[in-house]
Amino acid sequence: MTDVLARMGLIRMSARDTGTPHRVSTPLELLFDLVFVVAVSQASQNLHHLISDDHVGQAVLSYLMVFFAIWWAWMNFTWFASAFDTDDWLYRVLTIVQMGGVLVLAAGVHDAMVSFDYVVVTWGYVIMRLAMVAQWLRAAASDPALRHTALRMALGVSVVQVLWVSRIYLLDDTAQFWTFFVLVALELLVPVWGEAAGRTPWHPHHIAERYGLFTLLLLGESLLASANAIFDALGEGEHVPELLTLAISGIVVTAGIWWVYFSREQHGRLEGRRSAFRFGYLHYGIFAAVGAVSAGVEVEIDEITGHTAVSPAIAGLALTLPIAIVVAGAWLVLLRASLSRWASVAVLAGAVLIAVSGLLPSNEYVVAAALLVAVVIVLEVDRGRPSARAVSG
């Protein structure tokens, strides 16, 4: 079989060594992430516009629904690639097919969030997921030790995709809405069921790096929003002090989120099957919140320039709540085990204060940025204690 694969230019897709040193992201994985930025950008832009038009409930709910499709497809590819990446032509082609699915999904984000029309988003999502089915079937054919796991994953993903497509063509709008959450639950259960037959050999350092890189891409959206504040200030010549202050605060917030997220080594959170699921699944909240920060900055720009229908409090909370969720989520997923009790209390208190700072009558973005800096200082002071140095060493 190996000779046949070699003649076809293919490599046997067997489990990779989890102890491989210096395992880093491949250029294909980096390209894959960049395509997802398109979908994230569409979601954050529509979140911004819906909030500014005073459709806050619809904005938040539709954003979380669309972001699930983006995050889940990215995450499943990431863990699969960590375990089975062969980087031959067939693997690359199937990955590029997934990229095409991302672009289809991105094209349908506006209709999904504004009109709850999920036809295009669903087909984009299904394209991505069926490409993963092909990858799992290839793994099943190539790796006898993990064949049962791979077949379970392929079967589970396939069944759920049939249900996604059936949902949009057979059910009315109300039933489509409620069955969305049922199918989300089924999607989340498929890896649990599949891995019960045998754990796939993902690489802890590689997974930690992949999640960190995706966080950086999401933070790029926040930097773009801050740049937009500067562009508006220079272009219109009005509200210049407020917009420049917002831009500076946005840069501080972006840097602060980066500092909080990367303040401790992350691969230590990936010590077993249960911790891996916790790390992977809980990142949904962190990623969604980081992606929403840019929308919050844009809403603040609209509030300063008088281009929004929402109250100043709603505009403030649109920025401060996502920041607070990122801080609290980072504590829960990445920091809790390595912090002293006083530092944990301080970080969580900082998250709460950041959230409520959105209710201030003015300059809430300055206060939120200052509080985030305070959280960073707490983390750095706590890093200096002897037990923390021992753990990090």
UniProtKB/TrEMBL annotation:
Keyword vocabulary terms for this entry: Membrane, Transmembrane, Transmembrane helix
InterPro entries listed in its UniProt record: Low_temperature_requirement_A
Protein name: Low temperature requirement protein LtrA
Keyword Transferase attached: no
Positions of transmembrane segments: 56-77, 89-109, 115-137, 149-169, 175-193, 213-231, 243-261, 281-301, 313-335, 342-359, 365-381
